[in-house]
Amino acid sequence: MKGKMIFFDIDGTLLDHDKRLPDSTRQAVRELKEKGHSVAIATGRGPFMYKELREELGIDSYVSYNGQYVVWQGKPLYTNPIRPELLDSVTEYAVRHNHPIVYMDHDTMRSNTEYHAYVEESIGTLKVAQPSFDPKYHLGREIYQCLLFCTIGEEQAYKDTFGELDFIRWHQFSMDILPAGGSKAKGIEKMIEKLGIDRSDVYAFGDHLNDLEMLQFAGTGVAMGNALDSVKKIAKVVTRAVDDDGIWHGLKQVGLL
Q1: pTM of the model as a whole
Q2: What is the CATH code for 5-79+182-253?
Q3: N or C: at which end does the chain have fewer Cβ atoms within 10 angstroms?
Q4: Which NCBIfam families has this protein been placed in (predicted)?
């Protein structure tokens, strides 16, 4: 493959805090492709949550669910669902503690609770439709990620109880549940292994905790100006904030534009 491969996180990276795509970012992605580079998305979101964004940018390769569902040019390349018996156990535990769970596969997401303020508030920040109620949705399906809704500090009991799962907070009321060791970095690694791309030719842009491993794994990790300090600390390059043409300037900084 000619050119470099660039992975972009969505929230706080491609999209600003109002979930808008800056014009400079749209132009930057177009120019990257014109120069022969490959552009992909790496996100904690499910594929159905950013279909319109992919279409707008002309991107058909992506790492979804923090590495658990990887697609190259529209075709699944790697999947890593949560084991059904493990999913049953964490569901039972969450129900006992009155913590809602949302199940996510490649098509959609469903909640095991009809209504909960934590679900509405945290999902609402993503500017996507609220999940429908279906407490049995996970049965007989491949679930790649779940959302657990609890306050900061309550997750420790889950971490102590379920060593085969990782719990990564993305909102004050919500956490991602993933197979242990799952990450955007792992998904990217699976993709470039199959495509024969050298790690040194990989660039990644991100801003939050679920981007840490990705930025460390990439040959060049770029933190947005609005990134957490812990993310900036491990990045090779720090660009401007997403709403200050951060993608455009970051690509200039690393010599891709």
Answers
A1: 0.90
A2: 3.40.50.1000
A3: N
A4: Cof-subfamily, HAD-SF-IIB
